[in-house]
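Any chance you'd type out a single protein's sequence alongside its tokenized fold?
>
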Amino acid sequence: MPAGVAMSAFVPPLFCGLGIPELSGHAARFMNAVGRSPFDPKFDPALLVDRLRGRLNPPPETGTGPAQTAHSLLVRGVKDFDLHIPENKSPREQRLLIMLGLAHYLLHYPMLLRLAREKGIDGSGVVMGVPLDGARGAAAVEARVWALAALCPEVSFEAAYQEFIPQILQGQLTADDALGKLANAMNLTPDSIRFRMRTLDLSPYTDLKTQSSRPPLVPGGVVAPASA
């Protein structure tokens, strides 16, 4: 925790109200700008942390507050942030957690600075603390949509998914088997693949041309958190 900053000074991320298309477009533009297109399952998001002048560290052993939780982001200013990711997480989990932190930094910290300016507050005093331990709340869901859109572009994801459709329809693969294979192909966890499928309105039981029922939405048009 920065010296002289009370816990009450840590501000949670503000929900920015973007829908799935807008979040996906933002992620695509960012990845193109940093030269990370087309899709690359071997891409290491830690490179983006360095490029944005952030720091990637394990969680501090002592202390309290957002920066001291198991997986968290602490933003002190533009190009001044810390991502705390436990070293005991799998490479796939670490990959996603890093992208979730970057999503909050890119989507939600500018919202706080804008609000501070509107209220006549010095933006340099706004410190944002964000736990990254699940899709809880609208801002967390926005970050998850953005992160998975960046790691799994729609065209690449649907192309990988399409390969398994005949095997699913012929009973050669169960839906869970297909999810596992997709997770391996995209270098992500099965839960992340399930979430990405929901944002793209896909079902492991149907052909891509068959529209599944829309998932529940939260205000702004993003997918509501899964129960898992």
